[in-house]
Predict the structure.
Amino acid sequence: MPTFDLSYVEDQLVKREGFLPEVAAACVEKYKNFLALCRAYRGSGLIAPKEADIAWHQHIINTTRYRSDCAEFFGYFLHHVPGFQGDDKRNSSKALYEQHFPAAEFGAGADCSSCCDADIEEFVPLRADARFELAAG
């Protein structure tokens, strides 16, 4: 289970999206469960429960923190890939989620274009002294 602090995601859901605090906490809990599954089933393209996806959107818009959290928990960058993946992918994601978290109902699949798929990318760390030049145009 992720140990990094996602309380700011809960705060964003309450302040920006108007969620009740207990609903925001439930979204973040489902998101943590989803992240744990993504780590355990690396590269399987799991679909997030809708509530987890809402928290994922709030997490990923803080790009620096999201990248750091991914590096800490996964060792790679977990991409959010919108697009319809089909009912089979949703059903297999739901079955895995409910197998590992029987007390937490999967509910509806994510709905950003229909659903979201988790994709991975190995980290290629930038050198601290790297410099980038803009081409003269």
